[in-house]
Amino acid sequence: MNKTTHFGFTTIAETEKAERVAKVFTSVANKYDVMNDLMSVGLHRLWKRFAIQVSGVRVGERVLDVAGGSGDLSRQFAKCVGNSGQVWLTDINKAMLRVGRDRLIDDGLNIPVAQCDAENLPFPSNYFNCVSIAFGLRNVTHKDAALREMQRVLKPGGRLLVLEFSKVWKPLEPLYDAYSFKLLPKLGELIAKDADSYRYLAESIRMHPSQEELKRLMEEAGLSRVEYFNLNAGIVALHRGYKI
Questions:
Q1: Could you report the per-residue pLDDT of 92-128, keeping only the tens digit for each?
Q2: How many other C-beta atoms lie within 10 A of the C-beta of residue 116?
Q3: How many CB atoms lie within 10 A of CB 236?
């Protein structure tokens, strides 16, 4: 029997998910940053800045930005590590990776990029001081496998950061649901000419593990001292764990 997974609220074969997610991000790649600013009212920049601060990345360290999309975190990590450090930008989607690479080049940053799957990272074990994945884990078919891979490539003492949409404070759920399922697809249609992709976004957030569930998954992947920070009443959560 074929194994199944979810694509938003739809149940599909596991073998189909990567292709469907790829179509979503290929469709929205050129409007990705504009839509991020609109749908978060610019808050995504503050969430990412907070992640950089919590990462504790220092000069000379090695950082892996998984599912790095348009390169926002890679750009900030590059400033932290300086010329003696190294930042890799990766994404499974060629269109998104191209956008990120071009933006980094335009900013004068020579950052290596690699198109790869978070579940099968092409890097040696015990290599990076910090690994981050921002707004990408919910799109991964096997989250447990991806977390194990990210733990594998971390050096002992290194840390993994997972920035992701999460479970909002319950009293805000009705308002958040109205925004997610009514306004967000309309914005997607107006700006990106793609309502369905942003409907998937809203659905994928609801299917993503809660704060405590993701903490447990990270611990099962071998990470220690896992903690999380709720941002904007839990609309987004930043998880941090260490490889001991």
A1: 999 999 999 999 999 999 899 999 999 999 999 999 9
A2: 18
A3: 25
